[in-house]
Amino acid sequence: MAMLFRDPFDALFQFQQALDQLRASDWLQTGPSGGGSYPPLNVFRKGDDIIIITEVPGVQKADLSIEAKGNTIRIAGSKSVGQDDEASVHRLERRGGQFDRALTLPIEIDAERIKAECRDGILALYLSRAERDKPRSIAIT
Amino acid sequence: MSQPLAVQEKKELVSKGEKTVPARYYVPSTDIYETEDALKLVMEVPGVDRKDVDIRLEDDVLRVEARIDTAKYEGMEPLYTEYNVGHFARAFTLPHRIDQQQIGAALSDGVLTLTLKKVQQAQPRRIEIG
């Protein structure tokens, strides 16, 4: 996993395969707001941190609300796909509506240090693992 | 607008055309509107920067290719995934009444809006009897 991008021509393909392999991962366990809810999300690990990435094209920052309590993160908001009233429609593939999703992580996170970034229709949440949850190495005496 | 939003599974591009890289491409969800003077294409390309959008017009075919920046995922190990990532590509055949010199594009919040102006209709002409 560490050498995902060794070959730049193959990088994306390998990454896509890695993502596919984890489509059935039980890392988040099954819960009332598990897989299948909007927005779809990917969870990554980078060092000790957890990064949650979701695709929310057309959702503005002001329409998103993110809450954290304990190990649970809630992502709520609304997406509008409005059009001009006088326009006639040829094709409608985008969907709008409201969403509200909570996910409970299997690790302890530091709620004070959560960072959220929304750019180009991608919402990224950077979660730090709580200090008390980090593994400690034990010296053998 | 109060109905809950459902997840739309990303549609993979089937005919890859001239793509030679093994990576998968996706078809961006697109709305097409028509107003009195223009056609408007609204497509979802999350994660694409404006410099990575390539819009080409050949004959009457408008090709849009939008590439994501995979470098952003460098060093990240997936733990749990619900969608895959990839570049986007889609082609549209334009009607002849589009002014091919006047195509506008704007990108905001991962949504690419293309405005295709219609050609000026031939103005009705009054013919004087000489």
In short:
The complex is a heterodimer of chains A (141) and B (130). Chain A has 141 residues and is mostly beta strands. In chain A, 8% of the residues lie in helices and 36% in strands.
Overview of the structural elements:
- The complex is a heterodimer of chains A (141) and B (130).
- With 141 residues, chain A is mainly beta.
- Chain A has one helix spanning 11-21; strands at 41-46, 49-55, 64-69, 72-79, 88-92, 97-104, 115-119, 122-127.
- Chain A has a domain at 26-82 and 94-133: Immunoglobulin-like, CATH 2.60.40.790.
- In chain A, 8% of the residues lie in helices and 36% in strands.
- In chain A, the strands form two sheets. In chain A, strands 1-2-8-7 form a four-stranded antiparallel sheet, with no helix packed on it. In chain A, strands 3-4-6 form a three-stranded antiparallel sheet, with no helix packed on it.
- The longest helix of chain A has 11 residues, at 11-21.
- Chain A is globular, with a radius of gyration of 18 Å.
- Chain A starts with 10 loop residues before the first helix and ends in a 14-residue tail after the last strand.
- The model of chain A has no long low-confidence stretch (mean pLDDT 83).
- Chain B is mostly beta strands.
- Chain B is built from no helices and ten strands.
- Chain B has strands at residues 11-12, 25-27, 30-34, 38-44, 48-58, 61-68, 77-80, 87-93, 98-108, 111-118.
- In chain B, the strands form two sheets. Chain B has a five-stranded mixed sheet with strand order 1-2-8-6-5, with no helix packed on it. In chain B, strands 3-4-10-9 form a four-stranded antiparallel sheet, with no helix packed on it.
- In chain B, strand 3 and strand 4 form a beta hairpin.
- The model of chain B has no long low-confidence stretch (mean pLDDT 84).
- At the A-B interface, helix 1, strand 1, strand 2, strand 5 and strand 6 of A face strand 3, strand 4 and strand 7 of B.
- Strand 5 of chain A pairs antiparallel with strand 3 of chain B.
